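Box S2. Input/output pair 1.
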Amino acid sequence: MSLVLNLTLSALLAISLIPLYRAWRSEDIWLTLTAFASFASKTSILILVVSVLRDDWMLGVVGVIILSVGNAGIMLLAQILRRLEGEP
């Protein structure tokens, strides 16, 4: 069970770092925000997988809160940046 958990965590961590690397190479702010939103979603899914494999529902609740609230904060930041740039 521990080997399966370690392999799953390693694979999900490697997959979640791909958008951050792509955003690091670009200067576009919207691509960076999209990469952070993708990373937040993948991290919360990672937390949910760990909570199910460990049968720890308190950790699962934290994953659900991050999944629902984390992306809302990023979308609010995107709206603020759009207003600062002068777009309607």
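Box S3. Input/output pair 2.
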Amino acid sequence: MKTVQFTGQIMKEDKPGGWTFVTWPDSAIFLGTGKATKVTAKIEDHECAVTCLPTGDGTHFLPLNKAVLKATSKTIGDTISIEVWTLQ
């Protein structure tokens, strides 16, 4: 099992229905791909499955839904701790 930990600022796309997300630096190196990839993540103390989506520059973003934001008591602009693991 591979794991990585990082922190990031919660951001939201500036358009109706835009994603709420955290950018994952060096994700393509960790994942070994620049494609969308399903991982398990521990966001603060909330464990969930998430699909990391590529940005095209060697990073991915982790979408954060309302349930995750509520469970972690976080909002846009806050810094959040994330641990990601894969079975690779």
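Caption for Box S3: The chain is about 15% helix and 50% strand. The radius of gyration is 12 Å.
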